[in-house]
Amino acid sequence: MPPWELGWPEALSRQEVADVLGPGLVSLAARGFIEVRRFPSWPEPWEHGLPVAGDELLAATARIELWSDSARMHLAAQITDAGVPYL
Known about the structure:
This protein is of the alpha+beta class. It has helices spanning 14-30, 54-62, and strands spanning 34-39, 50-51, 74-79. It has one domain (12-79). The chain has a 3-stranded antiparallel beta sheet with strand order 2-1-3, covered by helices on one side.
């Protein structure tokens, strides 16, 4: 699912969503619980995405527009086998 689907209606702003959820995605990816990929448009088949991790993922999740359904860059996260017991 793309990050903008992870927002919550009670959030005061997209900045708040990015500040709270961005580091969470980075942490889950660093632990191997999720895989994040970048897509030119969404929806796309999972295998068409390019993996995003580390500093690139940290920078991407800090971008406010990523958390909007009108984003020009689309990231999507998928739970890995390692993440299933936890997520």
